[in-house]
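new request in #modeling-help
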Amino acid sequence: MKMPDPEKEILDKLPELTRRLVRLLGKQAVISSDQGRKAFESDGLTAYRQSPMIVALPGSTKDVSEVLKICNELNIKVVPRGAGTSLSGGALPLEDGLTLGLSKLNKIIDIDYQNRCVVSQCGVTNLAITHAVEEQGFYYAPDPSSQIACTIGGNVAENSGGVHCLKYGLTTNNILGLKMVLMNGDIIELGGKHMQESGYDLIGLITGSEGLLGVVTEATLRILPKANVIKAMLIGFDDIEKAGECVASTIASGIIPAGMEMMDNLAINAAEDYCHPGYPRDAAAILIAEFDGVESEVDYFTERVSELAKELGATSIAISQSEEEKNGFWAGRKAAFPAVGRISPDYYCMDGSIPRKKLPIVLRRMNELSKKYGLRVANVFHAGDGNLHPLILYDANVPGELERAEEFGADILRLCVEVGGALTGEHGIGVEKRDLMPAMFTKDDLNQQERIKCAFDPAHRLNPGKMFPELHRCAELGKMHIHGGKLLFPDIPRF
Amino acid sequence: MTDFICPTNEDQVRESIGDHIVMGKSLDIRTGGSLISLGSAMNTASTLSLKALNGVKLYEPEELVITLEPGVLLKDLKNLLKEYNQELKFEPPDLGPLLGNAPNLGTIGGIIGTNLSGPKRFMAGGARDYILGIQGISGYGQIFKAGGRVVKNVSGYDVSKLMCGSYGTLGAITEMTLKLAPKAQDEISLKIDDLDVNDAVSIMSAIAACPYEVSGLAHNPAKGTFIRIEGSTASLEERKAAIIKIIGKRSVSELEKEESEDQWRHIRDIAPLNPPKNLPLWKISVAASDVIDVINRHNPAFYFLDWAGGLLWMSTMDIPKIERGSFWLIRNAESPLDLPFNKTPDPLTDALSKRIKKAFDPKNILNPGRLGF
């Protein structure tokens, strides 16, 4: 993966930049030693590493704004970073870039039960929001697997999902307000505790923009009352396609579970070996479905889904009878990634999204690809919303295996797009899938996206090298070609 | 007299926008036109109506997705979804009659273009929360798409949300993909009589803070405080009993399904509540904790509350005085006053919005001025 070439003019400005940052933030908050910088060299996508030129750790929105003003003035590239758990290389540093670490903005500013929201700084972890409000019976719905570590700022940047977004939506559906800083230092406040904002939906645009448009420093998050009854089901099938059908028929029958997950045989056995959740080892696939609400509703749904599963020939059906049992059903799913990590020296986690009914075709083709590349693949799947997480097993010490795993992964994502899906369901494009964007979008689509970038950051200083396969100058993107009284479209013959 | 252009396919839309770019002439982009009085007044060379683009391009009930052209009538869409026991969960309103038009003229393009949502907004989200993908023609005369047709998709910027509620100022939407929801099996409503507005707001907040998934919380001083419960028939009684406990000793009655549906349709579409025509009608989104202050500040001749207290509709001569929150002038007084459509944005957000507009429409020919720029 090629990153933009380091710019000599930027590297030359390092002494001045360092001086000014130290003056602004103090010595403790500026990291320039080799060893210190190395700690930031990668994020959750560990195959890529690059020490940043320098790291700054501002402690307030105002400081973030001042740092960005300095960088803007000196034309320095900036890579924002929360907890560094991105799986797509969104926080991968640049050799000629400043990494803007936001971990010091770690306070919850306001908890407001009447308006059912929390105002939080960007460096607070996802799980800390729920911890702060659970005593009063509330929680924050988006729950990415990394929720113990990942931050709200990162969640906004990536529009994080999780197991429960099937019923409660992604980050974008659970945000009421944002405070963010543009590359030129402008501090913009959007929304608040009210539900709808007039003007353009900038909150919607910023959420999922992967740190390319602005640095989010504060968010107002919607919190939800926790259901009185939550039950999970564990359903085994001897055929993965039947499991897929069970998901489709559940949703088609008008039942939206709080979450609905699938694991294939390889993932089931890896989880059993790792933490013994009691999954049926011989099942081709298991479904874990969760239902929440009042008791009568949860009972009604679990009964209905049991019937559907029986009709499809489920080999085992269990409904949790206690909190412990429910957590047990989930334990293997939640530990699926580390569990797979134990059966292979390395694994590469993919994140394609497909229409649910295409699951059988995609699984079949993925099997063929697995044979072609000679690499095993374990499947963990947010089945309810069509989000696949194939884990490609490889060994980085075997020459060529990483490259093969990457090619395999790219083929899987192209397949997802081919069947009507998307390159990424929740992990983001980052550097990882940047060069695959043309598989999903035309040149005109991408140009329009880049023009939006230009409205926020005309010099491409904020997180460059992510999301877009090539960078165009904003002046070039803004041009229109008119000739002989006609608008010219280079790609389409008009006459 | 302005030109009226009514293309029947996407290429023709593109061609007419292209021609207007070349001529430097502006366009009033609309679908059915029943919401055209929303937004600041425009003075355009031509009108581009998208109402003839009215096809359902894809409907996969089992996937809960639908792809529509903008001119599809809401009433037709609702009937189609009903056949499969599905619905748009954000409850798109029909504001046509409120704005002096016949009922049932509203299109999906109008709803998405203006991001209008009904009473479920506080628990289920708004129109913007149900849009998965979009295709349109920009002021560059180019077709662009964003998003897709799957529920989970973070590939590229979420331009679909940006387009939703942009009042046609960023492009002509030619296609949109929406997420659907299964229709609730059953519904009932409870009505509490004679609450003063303070009590009503605290009751609504208390119920919204409980996990009974109520799908409507509204207070109309003339009629009462309404609580809607939807879901599986099996669960309605249990949830109703829990809510009645919260209501306590206040006088409460139950509305059967049909009566409940009527009541919420009135709250959704506003016109049946008869706001006075001699006064401007404002829609105001504020935190529920601020809403009493706003009411007291204005002492409006007519008002009611929706979205668990987070939405205030009121009729007053003066511009709503709110520190935090947003407002929309939905209907001007019969003798129109010179009033703004929205609250003035802060200068930085305003400047950013103008840069975004320019990124889509550098010649400012698409609905120029409708959002004030």
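bot summary: Confidence is low (pLDDT under 50) at residues 491-495 of chain A.
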